[in-house]
Design a protein that fits this description.
The complex is a heterotrimer of chains A (379), B (534) and C (435). With 379 residues, chain A is mainly alpha-helical. Chain A is built from 15 helices and 4 strands. Chain A has a two-stranded antiparallel sheet. In chain A, strands 2-3 form a two-stranded antiparallel ribbon. In chain A, helix 3 crosses helix 12 and helix 3 packs across helix 13 (308-328). Chain C is built from 12 helices and 19 strands. Classes of the chains: A mainly alpha (379), B mainly alpha (534), C alpha/beta (435).
Chain lengths: 379, 534, 435
């Protein structure tokens, strides 16, 4: 039953994508660990960490595309779920430091010691266990999304109003986490991690392991999302996107469908954040900033909204471009990035995958206008 | 009659003094150039003790930073820049005494302690000035300095004073001095009463000091007076908070009102709105640079010139953006979000490349500097003008949209594009001009914000989120909603700030917005009708 | 969606190629070098660009100057500039890139504490070399980081001493932005003030968010706090962007330096350049350098700076001097060690002394902090500071504050045999307080 459900989403395109992920999962460890450092095929830990980061962002983009591309909820606050997941993992990693902090306090993280905290706040308990943190990584963003969605969808907040209050949510969380009194390290956030599950977090093998874990998480997320999209549930979701009132009049409780997709998406974003933190080595409140949420929306748009593979491709490409340009054109990269967004929206309204599809449709029929997929409405 | 006599006396003194006392002042003035703060302060105190009005110009020159030591002979001189060197004058007589090379003179440095001594000295010395304003300032200076030596001069001045306001200030100054001295209790009790009537924070400071030491009777009276002043100030404090709320609200209104046009009326999710504000601020900077270079005397008018310039520059950038990018995206609001986000990145970087990443100085004209007291309220002129300006802009926009042909066209095009087009309205031109209007208003906001905030490439980023919150809270497409939304959010924020602190206050406001939207999913002033289901 | 097997086959090959290409694009060793690369890790965009861009420029100038003198060890220096875009994880990523891909010999960079915390593990892992030029909260000492900015005892405590002695201040407002530097500095100051007999009710601590722009209430509160009959002063650790609106509000509400002086630790010439300073004359700042300092070295430095930026109005400030000192120390240490190998340079850096711009020598201490004079300056009408007080000698940077319970027993000494950043003198062990 479950296998059938999961296989439902596996069309040819999904096969291609999963094959690429599988290839990465095999090739990267071999290239990083199995080759000599001076071999032209060698991958440095820097590159592994970088690619791991891109794939974390891809998972976030995938989560966002699920709600935006298929349910029509434009979230300008998805980074909030990503960052909360990241903080849950960061708290576990902080507890793992143990007495190796600069003050040598076995229980309290350094920032608490120098803010004169005497004991661990209640919400830090349990995070010394990996399983607990792993549960929290999904539970915290999921619960927040559920509560938020439950109110918002029942009140029938839609469109740009919903987008703006998701932005208000992430902005409020950012301000809250900036406060040192919150007990999350304030502006400095959580950093200087030592170990994950007993492995040295800076060892190349650990990094490769984290990378493979990210690939696996992305693959699972992709299979899950494409199965949902292809199932009957997915059809209802798309119907909600295109004409919510009509679906409601047909007797569906649209709020429940939206709430399901929304909460699932938040959990996926949380996992992405949790995988991101050990690979970049820091989590701090600026990840909550509305700009990072908007960037995630842009990845999806560049790749192609409403195509799960497109979200992944968009996230990887835009971030690769950012890494490249910030080093190659440090003074001009914002022009390049800003220009890219303008050009993509003007000339590739359906993103890169949309362009590919358009080209394929155009080629056999020589200049025939590509048929517009019906019902792609704004906000 | 008295007054005339007093004036005559003063005039006589002013004329006679240099001749009579110049010789005595000379060594004291020379002492000012001692080379270290402590000795300069001693010399200054001696100079003030003479009570000689001829010392006034010397101290004023020191205050203005014009007093120098001539290196060869150690003489203290007044030096003003002329050409490559300095033109020197005698500090006491004001007679020119030749020129000096830039390296031949050394400025007498002053620090805060010296500045305090100077204003105290000037206060004591100018209590008899023929100008009522100067006398009032002198009284205030004595009030602050509490210089016991000034008591005699103060009593003399009080006896002759005719101006009610100045007289009150002098009485208060006297009370301040008496309270700090070892005067008998009776005098001190009277002083406490005088200060209680003054009732502001300066008086509170003095009363608090008196309540801490002295005889029991004075302590008790001062304690009572403190309580009275505090309760009065608390009342005014509430009013002050209301004013802060109004002031913050009007800043939000200014920032949001352009967005109410581009986003509210046209439906473009304009993430580059903040950059239009920033461009307006930089236009102000350029205009001021122009004034500084060519017409420094007219600097006070620079802001007035900057207003139309900023409107036109930001508006023109808006029209260009609309014609080149936005017009391809109508009906696809989300794409406008992406494109304008890209534009905002590029515009920020462009400004950074052109003007550098650091802050630029935008000066305040004199009519926007400082503050005045309204009862117990302190109102700064800058904020007051911004409030007025915000309402003027709002009113003008309302009139433009409601009462002009252009406004009619805008409403027609946004409500039913095809119909408007069929009626002969050139919709493309209206689109461009509407976007230009919204951007131009953002530019006007930039002029105002340049007075209270950084003029840097990041200026716009600080306001974009707040602006969206205001527009959405008030209800998209409704100008009145924007007005009420801005003022409400400003007041709530300022109301919460004293209790919750600045950060928590802002968080609470955001949560309030989230909850409010649950209650009214279309904002405060929702558009009614079938068009709502978009 | 794609249905044709043929087409998907083709795109599979394309995608696989893309993936491999992506992976391979990252691979590949760097080519042999005949220059010595120097990394510059300062934000050129985002919120911190306002402060950090200047430091990038000054580094380019210093490298240029050094190359004119013939470079180092007979090789030319080559600057490698990257833009971490005020994004803290990006700082770590770029640091790793500079060290592993560009193979830079040393990195000069970071401004905020969080960016330094973000790159710290990277430098320790890869044994890199970072020169950090900004005043900071202390409570840190890393083998791979050299702190050329001021520690709290080189800025905050002398400033408070000055106010107590010269202005006889009895009541204190400690106002700061809510992040680690103000928090720590204020904690140290609070402990220090109490040790000097200041009572609890005479200290008011206030935190505001980053980029706070509406200061009306807070300035009014300061005025109110100042009306308790005792001389009051404000110690400001307000950060960057928020300062301009803060000072504008102070000026407008008529808070004069003669009545309530404000002494700031994060406001330098660059910040003042954006404000009309006439209403602010007399407010104070504590630094280790002012542009107005009258020494031949400083005059020469300012002249070169204005020529290099081709802008007569560009100002200089304290973190620039820190880079000047740090860069010259690095050059001297490399020449002493005869190699750019980081371990050798790290060892040879300790004890190196170079001229600073205020007419003396700054030396690198075993705790990787430097000795500096402390200057207190008053704001002038022209946007400059006038030095009103200077410590008689040099103050050595103290990384572990003596006024905090948890760090007063810690010291740091990176010379062998101790080689420890947090040695506990009570337990005699390396590794913090111990348990």
């Amino acid at each position: 039953m479950l296998t059938r459900f999961l296989l439902l989403g596996l069309d040819k395109k999904a096969g291609v994508l999963l094959a690429v992920l599988a290839l990465l999962a095999v090739a990267v460890p071999v290239m990083a660990l199995g080759t000599a450092p001076d071999s032209p095929w060698h991958l440095s830990t820097h590159s592994v960490a970088l690619m791991g980061k891109y794939l974390c962002f891809a998972l976030l983009a995938l989560a966002l595309d699920l709600v935006w591309g298929y349910v029509g909820i434009l979230s300008l606050g998805h980074a909030a779920f990503f960052t909360l997941g990241g903080y849950a993992m960061g708290m576990y990693l902080m507890r793992q430091i143990g007495p190796r902090g600069v003050y040598g306090n076995p229980i309290l993280p350094d920032f608490m010691v120098f803010l004169n905290w005497k004991e661990l706040p209640w919400y830090w308990h349990g995070f010394d266990q990996f399983w607990f943190a792993a549960v929290m990584v999904m539970l915290v963003p999921g619960a927040l999304a559920f509560a938020f969605g439950w109110f918002a969808f029942r009140s029938r907040v839609t469109g740009v109003y919903l987008s703006i209050i998701t932005q208000a949510l992430t902005f409020a969380l950012m301000l809250a986490f900036f406060r040192n009194d919150m007990g999350f390290g304030g502006n400095n956030g959580l950093t200087d991690f030592k170990e994950i599950l007993g492995f040295d977090i800076q060892a190349p093998a650990t990094r490769v392991g984290l990378f493979v874990a990210t690939v696996v998480a992305l693959a699972i997320g992709y299979i899950l999302a494409s199965s949902i999209v292809a199932s009957k549930l997915g059809k209802v979701l798309v119907a909600v996107r295109d004409a919510e009132s009509r679906v409601r009049f047909l007797g569906y409780e649209t709020e429940r469908y939206k709430l399901f997709a929304w909460t699932l998406s938040a959990c996926m974003a949380g996992v992405a954040g949790a995988l991101y933190v050990p690979q970049v080595g820091i989590i701090n409140p600026s990840e909550f900033s509305p700009a990072s949420s908007i960037e995630a929306v842009i990845w999806v748009a560049v790749g192609g909204r409403g195509t799960l593979a497109g979200a992944i491709i968009g996230a990887v490409l835009v971030n690769f471009g950012k890494s490249y340009f910030t080093a190659a054109l440090p003074e001009l990269w914002l022009f390049a990035l800003g220009g890219l967004f303008v050009l993509v929206t003007l000339f590739l309204p359906k993103g890169i995958l949309g362009l590919a599809a358009q080209l394929r449709q155009r080629l056999p029929s020589r200049g025939a206008v590509a048929a517009k997929p019906a019902g792609q409405k704004g906000v | 009659m008295h007054r005339a006599l007093c004036w005559l006396l003063a005039a006589f003194l002013a004329l006679a003094a240099p001749a009579a006392f110049a010789a005595d002042l000379e060594p004291l003035v020379r002492g000012l150039g001692a080379g270290n703060y402590a000795d300069t302060e001693k010399a200054l105190a001696k100079l003030a003790e003479t009570g000689d009005p001829a010392a006034v110009p010397v101290i004023e020159a020191l205050q203005a930073g014009d007093l120098y030591v001539r290196k060869p002979d150690g003489a203290v001189v007044v030096a003003k820049r002329s050409g490559n060197g300095y033109a020197l004058t005698d500090p006491v007589t004001g007679a020119p005494i030749g020129e000096a090379d830039r390296n031949a003179v050394e400025k007498i440095k002053v620090n805060n302690a010296l500045r305090r001594t100077m204003s105290a000295a000037l206060g004591a010395l100018t209590l008899m000035s023929p100008n009522a304003g100067v006398r009032w300032q002198a009284a205030e200076a004595v009030f602050k300095s509490r210089d016991a030596n000034a008591l005699e001069a103060l009593d003399a001045a009080l006896a002759k004073e005719t101006d009610e306001g100045v007289k009150r200030a002098m009485t208060q100054a006297r009370a301040s001095v008496v309270l700090g001295s070892s005067a008998p209790d009776g005098d001190k009790l009277a002083a406490v009463e005088v200060l209680k009537d003054r009732g502001d924070q300066d008086a509170l400071a003095l009363l608090n000091g008196a309540a801490g030491n002295g005889s029991e009777a004075v302590k008790a009276a001062a304690g009572k007076a403190v309580a009275a002043v505090e309760s009065r100030l608390a009342l005014w404090g509430a009013a002050q908070n209301l004013w802060y709320g109004l002031s913050l609200g009007s800043v939000l209104l200014l920032a949001a009102i352009g967005l109410a046009v581009t986003f509210g009326v046209m439906g473009v999710i304009n993430m580059a709105h903040g950059e239009m504000v920033m461009i307006g601020a930089y236009a102000t900077f350029l205009v001021q640079e122009g004034f500084r270079a060519w017409a420094p005397g007219l600097f006070d008018f620079s802001i007035l010139v900057a207003l139309p310039v900023a409107f036109l520059v930001s508006g023109a950038v808006g029209v260009v953006i609309e014609r080149s990018v936005i017009r391809w995206l109508y009906g696809r609001p989300l794409e406008t979000l992406l494109a304008t986000w890209g534009l905002s990145l590029a515009l920020q970087q462009a400004v950074r490349s052109l003007f550098g990443p650091t802050n630029r100085e935008v000066g305040a004209p004199s009519w926007m500097s400082g503050a005045f007291q309204l009862g117990g309220l302190t109102i700064t002129y800058g904020r007051l003008w911004i409030v007025v300006f915000a309402f003027l802009v709002f009113g003008a926009l309302l009139v433009a949209l409601r009462r002009t042909w252009f406004g009619l066209s805008i409403r027609a095009v946004t409500q039913n594009r095809n119909m408007a087009s069929a009626m002969g309205i050139r919709t493309a031109r209206v689109d461009a001009l509407t976007f230009g209007l919204g951007s131009g208003i953002a530019g006007l906001a930039g002029v105002a914000l340049s007075q209270i905030d950084n003029v840097s490439p990041n200026l716009g980023q600080g306001y974009i989120i707040d602006s969206f919150m205001v527009v959405v809270f008030g209800g998209v497409g409704n100008l009145w909603g924007t007005l009420v939304g801005a003022l409400a959010l400003g007041s709530v924020n300022k109301f919460l700030e004293p209790y919750a602190g600045a950060v928590l206050g802002k968080i609470l406001v955001l949560i309030f917005i989230i909850l409010f939207i649950q209650r009214r999913p279309r904002g405060l002033f929702a558009l009614k009708g079938r068009a709502v289901e978009a | 969606m794609l249905q044709s097997g043929l087409k998907s086959g083709r795109s599979f090959v394309a995608a696989a190629g893309l993936a491999l290409g992506l992976a391979a694009g990252f691979a590949g060793p760097a080519s042999a070098q005949d220059t010595i690369k120097v990394g510059i890790l300062h934000s050129l965009s985002g919120t911190m660009a306002i402060s950090e861009t200047t430091l990038k420029d000054v580094m380019l100038m210093l490298i240029d100057e050094q190359n004119k003198k013939g470079g180092v060890l007979g090789k030319k220096l080559e600057p490698v500039v990257v833009d971490p875009a005020s994004n803290w994880p990006l700082f770590a990523e770029k640091a790793r890139e500079l060290i592993t891909k560009d193979k830079v010999a040393a990195v000069f960079g970071c401004w905020t504490s969080v960016s330094r915390k973000s790159v710290l593990p990277v430098f320790e892992e890869l044994n890199g070399l970072l020169f950090y030029p900004v005043q900071y909260e202390g409570e840190e000492s890393s083998r791979n980081v050299f702190y050329t900015g001021a520690a709290p005892n080189q800025q905050a405590i002398p400033a408070v001493d000055y106010l107590m002695e010269k202005e006889s201040v009895k009541r204190w407002v400690l106002a700061g932005t809510d992040y680690v530097y103000p928090r720590t500095t204020n904690k140290i100051l609070e402990a220090y003030l109490k040790s000097k007999g200041v009572k609890d009710e005479d200290i008011k601590i206030n935190y505001t968010p980053f980029g706070h722009s509406d200061w009306q209430n807070i300035v009014a509160d300061i005025k109110k706090f100042g009306s308790a009959g005792k001389k009051t002063a404000v110690v400001s650790t307000i950060n960057g962007d928020a300062n301009v609106p803060f000072y504008k509000e102070l000026g407008n509400q008529g808070v004069k330096a003669q009545d309530i002086p404000v002494v700031a630790f994060s406001v330098g010439e660059e910040e003042l350049a954006g404000i009309d300073t006439k209403p602010l004359v007399g407010h104070l700042a504590a630094w280790n350098y002012f542009q107005s300092v009258d020494t031949p070295e400083n005059a020469d430095f300012i002249k070169k700076w204005k020529a290099f930026t081709k802008n007569d109005k560009r100002v200089t400030n304290d973190p620039m001097e820190a880079h000047y000192i740090g860069f010259n120390m690095w050059v001297k240490a490399v020449e002493k060690a005869g190699t750019t190998d980081s371990s050798a340079v790290i060892d040879s850096l300790i004890g190196v002394a170079v001229p600073n711009l205020t007419g003396g020598y700054s030396a690198m201490l075993p705790n990787h902090h430097i000795t500096k004079p402390v200057l207190i300056g008053e704001v002038q009408e022209n946007g400059q500071f006038e030095t009103v007080s200077k410590t008689p000698g040099l103050v050595p940077g103290d990384e572990w504050s003596d006024y905090l319970a948890d760090s007063k027993d810690l010291i740091s000494d990176w010379r062998a045999p101790m080689s420890c950043g947090n040695f506990n003198v009570k337990t005699g062990k390396c590794g913090g307080k111990g348990s």
